[in-house]
Design a protein that fits this description.
Shape of chain B: globular
Catalytic activity (chain A): N(6)-[(R)-lipoyl]-L-lysyl-[protein] + 3-methyl-2-oxobutanoate + H(+) = N(6)-[(R)-S(8)-2-methylpropanoyldihydrolipoyl]-L-lysyl-[protein] + CO2
CATH class of the largest domain in chain A: Alpha Beta
Number of helices of chain A: 14
Strand order of the largest sheet of chain B: 1-2-6-5
Keywords (chain A): Oxidoreductase
Number of domains of chain A: 2
CATH superfamily of one domain in chain B: Thiamin diphosphate (ThDP)-binding fold, Pyr/PP domains
Shape of chain A: globular
Largest sheet of chain A: 7 strands, mixed
Protein name (chain A): 3-methyl-2-oxobutanoate dehydrogenase (2-methylpropanoyl-transferring)
CATH class of one domain in chain B: Alpha Beta
Low-confidence stretches of chain A: 1-21
Radius of gyration of chain B: 19 Å
CATH architecture of the largest domain in chain A: 3-Layer(aba) Sandwich
Radius of gyration of chain A: 20 Å
Largest sheet of chain B: 4 strands, parallel
Organism (chain A): Hevea brasiliensis
Order of helices and strands of chain A: HEHEHEHEHHEHEHEHEEEHEEHEHEHH
Distance between the termini of chain A: 40 Å
InterPro entries (chain A): THDP-binding, Transketo_C/PFOR_II, Transketolase-like_Pyr-bd, Transketolase_C
Low-confidence stretches of chain B: 157-167
Number of helices of chain B: 5
Largest interface: A-B, 28 and 31 residues
CATH superfamily of the largest domain in chain A: Thiamin diphosphate (ThDP)-binding fold, Pyr/PP domains
CATH topology of one domain in chain B: Rossmann fold
Order of helices and strands of chain B: HEHEEEHEHEH
Oligomer: heterodimer
Strand content of chain B: 5-15%
């Protein structure tokens, strides 16, 4: 069923409705809305934070047992992603928490364990670590260790991540790799407004706890046509967003736009690049990446997080296992440096377009 | 300001100021993280029998972080020489104390973990010095940790020319001049060398 959603290029997505084990209130309403809106699938130019805001409005509208909470979310949040929610759904469903990340996530797990959709916001991904124990030891293991008698599938944790130009140590981190090492949760990262709305709705309605990292650099910067209706994009399905034949590039989030620029430049030098948006980091779509690498014979992975132990390492190891004899060159990783995220040195730290372009050329010319 | 002549060689951010000569262990960007660290430093001082006292400063927002209470408990249990200075200016980002804290008298929040507290007028410099002195004396004599809640408030305007009742125009101008001199020095300083990017990640 989900395979029919693979798309290339920038067409409007097809709406789907996946079966959910939580409250069924949303299913009925989503189908109803789809039928009403099928005649006119209008879209509007939105930036990333507005698209996320729309997703949250829809999530709360379609399921009366869904809640949004976190530090400062009531007035709209520090990035305005939660604007209008308290006014529309009330203080009992959209509320501020004290400054206590571990408490916020633990509390969210409890709320989700009772069959609710708990949408917790961590103000910056850099602050998620106090909640690490709750995520790893509680959320990820709840269903497994209770033999499926209990679960906290309704939990979604949202956090802005990534470089922003001046964030320094504690407003720029990309901690996704820490969470990709935990079976039992999913990690999803959107690249654009249209993707974010559909992916976030899928995450909220997925019967597993999900960590959803939002690229803060794109909150205002990324603007595109976003369908106004309720739609969901499939998890654990990567997307080929640019077709090519000489080398496969894999990335996620804000880094993709940098990689796209490198691909365009490489094309001028006669190198045809295939670019894949992974979208879901765990469980990740190995098949799509493998199919692409079998075609091109080369792989380059790029992410903002430091290179050592970054998620690129997992992709590299898995693809080498699957495609060893097909590979024409070692797998390249163009990532953040192995340092704390610096303030003044940010331009040196970041995996820039030129670093990617250099790696593309050296991989192709290996 | 991210310059070579700055504290932390320009590598930290705006909150990362350090001074080893004055035993200033730095500012912290992660709310509440400094509290167990300060508690550990206090243990080191106690172990050395140095009669040293550690002042660990935190804001009202940090008072809802779990690690703060873990620290209070350890400090009280081991009678560590630490004074926890809570600067209560009523707001943590947009989170107000009464809306986020079930017990708003922050000086009482340590009592459950054996840390006695005192509320001080944080706007009165003599009250603050006096309270700090008293607290340091008690700590040095092995009485264990103390919490001082400094009641203060956050100014609405950022501008130095805010019409404030408690400052004369002349005082504002004098302070402005000092600040301007410091800013000029910082702006004229060179940035740290690119070699510094990789230094001090490990020893």
């Amino acid at each position: 069923m989900a395979s029919c959603l693979r798309r290339y290029g920038r067409r409007l997505s097809v709406s789907i409705c996946e079966k959910r084990e939580l409250s069924t209130a949303c299913e009925g309403k989503v189908i109803q809305q789809q039928q009403q809106q099928q005649q006119q699938q209008t879209a509007k130019l939105l930036n990333l934070c507005s698209a996320i805001n729309q997703a949250l409005h829809l999530a709360l509208e379609t399921d009366p047992r869904s809640y949004v909470f976190g530090e400062d979310v009531s007035f709209g949040g520090v990035f305005r992603c939660t604007t209008g929610l308290t006014e529309r759904f009330g203080k009992n469903r959209v509320f501020n928490t004290p400054l206590c990340e571990q408490g916020i996530v633990g509390f969210g797990i409890g709320l989700a364990a009772m069959g609710n959709r708990a949408i917790a916001e961590i103000q910056f991904a850099d602050y998620i670590y106090p909640a690490f124990d709750q995520i790893v030891n509680e959320a990820a293991k709840f269903r497994y260790r209770s033999g499926n008698q209990y679960d906290c599938g309704g939990l979604t944790i949202r956090a802005p991540y990534g470089a922003v130009g001046h964030g320094g140590h504690y407003h720029s981190q990309s901690p996704e790799a820490f969470f990709c090492h935990v079976p039992g949760i999913k990690v999803v990262i959107p690249r654009s407004p249209q993707q974010a709305k559909g992916l976030l709705l899928s995450c909220i309605r997925d019967p597993n706890p999900v960590v959803f990292f939002e690229p803060k650099w794109l909150y205002r910067l990324a603007v595109e046509e976003v369908p106004e209706h309720d739609y969901m994009l499939p998890l654990s399905e990567a997307e080929v967003i640019r077709e090519g034949s000489d080398i496969t590039l894999v990335g996620w989030g804000a880094q993709l736009s940098i990689m796209e620029q490198a691909c365009t430049d490489a094309e001028k030098d006669g190198i045809s690049c295939e670019l894949i948006d992974l979208k879901t980091l765990i469980p990740w779509d190995k098949e799509t990446v493998e199919t692409s690498v079998r075609k091109t014979g080369r792989l380059l992975i790029s992410h903002e997080a430091p290179v050592t132990g970054g998620f690129g390492a997992e992709i590299s190891a898995s693809i080498v296992e699957r495609c060893f004899l097909r590979l024409e060159a070692p797998v390249a990783r163009v990532c953040g440096l192995d340092t704390p995220f610096p303030l003044v040195f940010e331009p040196f730290y970041m995996p820039t377009k030129n670093k990617i372009l250099d790696a593309i050329k050296s991989t192709v010319n290996y | 300001m991210g310059k070579r002549t700055g504290c932390s060689k320009g590598k930290g951010g705006s909150m990362h100021m350090f001074n080893t000569a004055k035993n200033f262990f730095g500012g912290h960007g992660i709310v509440g993280a400094q509290v167990p660290i300060g508690t550990g430093i206090a243990f080191a001082e106690q172990y050395k029998k140095s009669k040293g006292v550690v002042f660990t400063c935190l804001g009202d927002g940090a008072m809802n972080q779990g690690q703060v209470y873990e620290s209070f408990n350890m400090a009280s249990l081991w009678k560590l020489p630490v004074v926890y200075v809570v600067e209560n200016n009523e707001y943590a980002m947009g989170t107000s104390v009464p809306r986020s804290s079930s017990v708003v008298e922050l000086c009482k929040r340590g009592e459950g973990c054996g840390v006695p507290g005192r509320q001080v007028d944080g706007m009165d410099v003599f009250a603050v010095v006096g309270a700090a002195d008293d607290a340091a004396k008690l700590c040095r004599n092995g009485n264990g940790p103390i919490l001082l809640e400094m009641k203060t408030y956050r100014f609405r305007g950022h501008s130095m020319s805010d019409p404030a009742k408690y400052r004369t125009r002349q005082e504002v101008d004098e302070v402005r001049e000092t600040v301007n001199e410091a800013v000029e020095f910082a702006q004229n300083s060179p940035e740290p060398d690119v070699d510094e990017l990789y230094t001090d990640v490990y020893k």
